[in-house]
Design brief:
The chain is of the alpha+beta class and about 400 residues long. About 30% of the residues lie in helices and about 25% in strands. The protein has eleven helices and 16 strands. The strands form four sheets. Strands 3-4-5-9-8-7-6 form a seven-stranded antiparallel beta sheet, sandwiched between helices. Strands 14-15-13-12-16 form a five-stranded antiparallel beta sheet. The protein has a two-stranded antiparallel sheet with strand order 1-2. About 45% of the residues are buried.
């Protein structure tokens, strides 16, 4: 990756985005080609091609647009055999100037990315990506762009769109395509965890702390768009959802090591309900962390990314709650986060029949034990001043 491109990615995170009232946009997915995009709220479908292989989305309140196009040689003929060739074809049709780079993402050995500019009714510039799809010979191309004069301030928004792409549901909770390009894997570094006097040696990638922070800052810049609008709740949920997707994949070796070490001990200690003992072990562990939230400016998130938490570089109620969710869900147990603007707090949940204070998921009848991560209490023990369920917002995790 060229150094000036990486500098653009870092510099773009320094800018705060503003806009007026937005409209909600649901997750974009295609069951035929098995791709999806979890885009920020507000985008509307402006145009669709006759063959239904190309889609143009615009935003009514913000100068960002994106084009999503599927290239399938079986349908459209030969448009290239590699991602960079397909992306070049797409950009050439728009008479765009471009710089194209290739890289590996998940199981795909060759994906492509481009910093491009083009002239339509006015000058535009942005980022474009291309990745192979599960269907042989098919590719998805996403071009996200804005007016040339708004490019710098819109970069986080543009990159968030692209980074939400998923082309294989088995890799849904893995680092996104933009984060992977900006921070290629560098090799593992060993870390040690002491969980209830059980020493666990595991590993994270050498790039994980910086890469996870990159994703945090990118998504936080998008979140700031909605702080004073009626969609702040949906935007907040997406923020944690996108951070979780990135974090879960980075912590796969950690989760595997923790489960391998602890779960057999929990089965011995509590054969009738080992999952509760495992969940309590994890909850009790994060409750011992020294609580620390960095003093940040209003334009910088104070959420501590999970690889940094594991390396002792700080933590907060948000990161503790998400870490518990990662370690429970990796073990196959249902869990999600609860966040509250009124309480300025976050908690975790765990589905288990054990008694205690619970959060009922509306319309399902399912009840989840509530977990406080900042006081040394058991699952289902919640302070009275945090007990109003109407003030908690569920963040359901993928």
């Amino acid at each position: 990756m060229t150094s000036h491109k990486l500098q653009k990615l870092f510099t773009s995170l320094l800018f705060i985005l503003f806009c007026s009232t937005l409209a909600f946009a649901e997750n974009i997915s295609d069951s035929v080609y098995n791709y999806s995009l979890d885009v920020p709220e507000g985008f509307e479908l402006a145009e669709i091609s006759d063959d239904q292989m190309s889609y143009h989305f615009t935003h009514p309140n913000y100068p960002v647009q994106f084009i999503l196009k599927v290239y399938d040689r079986a349908v459209t003929g030969n448009t290239g055999s590699t991602a960079d060739e397909v992306l070049r074809t797409a950009l050439k049709k728009l008479s765009a100037s471009m710089e194209i780079d290739t890289f590996a993402w998940n199981k795909n050995p060759i994906c492509a990315i481009s910093d491009f500019s083009m002239t339509l009714d006015q000058q535009y510039s942005g980022w474009a990506i291309c990745a192979p799809l599960e269907k042989q010979g098919a590719f998805v191309v996403v071009l996200a762009y804005t007016t040339a004069d708004a490019r710098q301030s819109c970069n986080p928004f543009i990159m968030s769109i692209l980074n939400s792409l998923c082309t294989d549901e088995n890799f849904y909770c893995y680092p996104g395509i933009i984060a992977t390009y900006a921070f290629p894997y560098e090799g593992y570094r060993e870390i040690s965890l002491n969980i209830q006097n059980n020493l666990i040696t595991t590993e994270i990638d050498k790039s994980d702390i910086d890469a996870a922070q990159f994703v945090l800052e990118m998504e936080y810049n998008v979140l700031l768009l909605y702080s004073k609008h009626n969609l702040w709740k949906e935007a907040w949920q997406r923020y944690y959802r996108m951070v979780y997707r990135d974090s879960y994949g980075r912590l796969i070796p950690v989760s595997a090591a923790v489960i391998e070490k602890l779960y057999p001990l929990c089965e011995k200690a509590n054969p009738s309900n080992p999952s509760l003992t495992y969940a309590q072990t994890i909850l009790s562990w994060v409750q011992t962390f020294d609580y620390k939230r960095d003093n940040q400016s209003a334009s910088t998130t104070d959420f501590t990314n999970l690889p940094a938490v594991l390396c002792g570089k700080g933590n907060d109620c948000d990161s503790r709650s998400m870490l518990v969710c990662v370690l429970l869900r990796a073990a196959g147990f249902e869990s999600f986060m609860l966040i509250s603007r009124e309480y300025s707090h976050a908690m975790t949940t765990f589905e288990n029949p054990a008694p205690g204070q619970k959060y009922e998921v509306e319309g399902t009848g399912r009840e989840f034990l509530m977990g406080e991560t900042t006081a040394k209490v058991t699952w289902g023990t919640i302070a009275q001043e945090h007990a109003d369920r109407s003030k908690w917002i569920p963040v359901f995790l993928p």
